[in-house]
Amino acid sequence: MTPERQKWWDSLPTNERELRVALNANRRMLSLAKEGLTKFKGSVCLAGAVRKQKLTIKAIKHELDRTTVAVYVGHLGHYEGAVPIYRCEKCGNMFENFEQSYCCWCGRKIVGWK
Q: CB of 97 within 8 A of CB of 85?
């Protein structure tokens, strides 16, 4: 591991480090399950294991990707005092800007406003 990468890894919170280790382990297990699925054609047990691994990986990725950026879309109405409308970059849903710190649709923390 390069010194820059080691510095980045050490700067991560413990929870995020554990999630990244679990993600890599699940990816390796998924690879082994897929390999077994091709060797033993039609194995229902292995097909179920592949589905479970994919769901686990998806859940871990979602947990790691917990921040978003709100993108300005326009104003609601054409009168003075109209409310600005923003769109979440991750989920794509639109919401009014009330200076909230989380997306009201997906729950990700808003770290920037464009």
A: yes
Confidence bin at 67 (pLDDT 50/70/90):
confident
Say what the pLDDT of residue 73 is.
Answer: 86
pLDDT band of 92, cuts 50, 70, 90: confident
CA 70-67-49 angle, 5° bins:
130
CA 106, 108, 109 angle in degrees (round to 5)?
Answer: 145
Kindly state the tokens that stand for 87. Answer: 């769109």
Distance from C-alpha of 101 to C-alpha of 51, rounded to nearest angstrom: 34
Tell me what percent of the chain is helix, strand and coil, each rounded to the nearest 5. 50, 20, 30
**What is the spatial distance between Cα 33 and Cα 57, in angstroms, rounded to a whole number?**
14
* Tokens found for residue 56: 């686990």
**Do 75 and 86 meet the contact criterion of CB atoms below 8 Å apart?**
no
Strand blocks (E) in 38-114: 67-76, 83-88, 94-96, 109-113
Which residue's structure tokens are 């999630």?
19
